[in-house]
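User: Hi! I have a protein structure encoded as tokens and I'd like to know what sequence might fold into it. I'm fairly new to this, so please keep things simple.
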């Protein structure tokens, strides 16, 4: 059973692609380290943003599944990206990838543009926090 409540303040404009607040009332907290667009062997298969974004989300899902979590258990994501123009130009494609992997669940999110990331040629890194309900 889901133990999260989307918090939407009265009078606020509805956010697109994220939630303003999620209240997790019960469960185990899973912190997922920043995931970049490399595969399980830490090899980048692409130097482009869209495939790296897709792989980073798949990496997040692998960690989440290992902890018996589901996409709807994700409460927060912080994304760090080094190419704002490429991100903005790719939003439609990134949205399609999001829906394919995470469905219609939109956690609290921040997108931060930075000058560089540690793992070259990473263009995006995504940190995630999930709250996974206890099994009963």
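Assistant: Happy to help. Inverse folding works backwards from shape to sequence: for each of the 136 positions I chose a residue that suits the local structure. Here it is:
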């Amino acid at each position: 059973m889901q133990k999260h409540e989307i918090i939407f303040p009265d009078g606020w404009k509805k956010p697109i692609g994220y939630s303003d607040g999620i209240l997790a009332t019960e469960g185990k907290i899973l912190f997922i380290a920043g995931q970049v667009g490399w595969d399980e062997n830490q090899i980048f298969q692409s130097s482009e943003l869209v495939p790296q974004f897709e792989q980073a989300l798949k990496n997040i899902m692998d960690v989440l599944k290992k902890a018996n979590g589901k996409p709807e258990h994700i409460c927060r994501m912080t994304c760090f990206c080094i190419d704002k123009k490429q991100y903005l130009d790719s939003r439609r494609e990134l949205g399609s990838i999001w829906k394919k992997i995470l469905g219609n669940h939109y956690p609290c999110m921040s997108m931060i543009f930075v000058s560089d990331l540690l793992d070259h040629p990473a263009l995006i890194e995504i940190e995630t926090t999930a709250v996974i309900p206890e099994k009963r």
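A useful reference point when you look it over: Residues 35 and 55 are 9 Å apart (CA to CA). Feel free to ask if any position seems puzzling.
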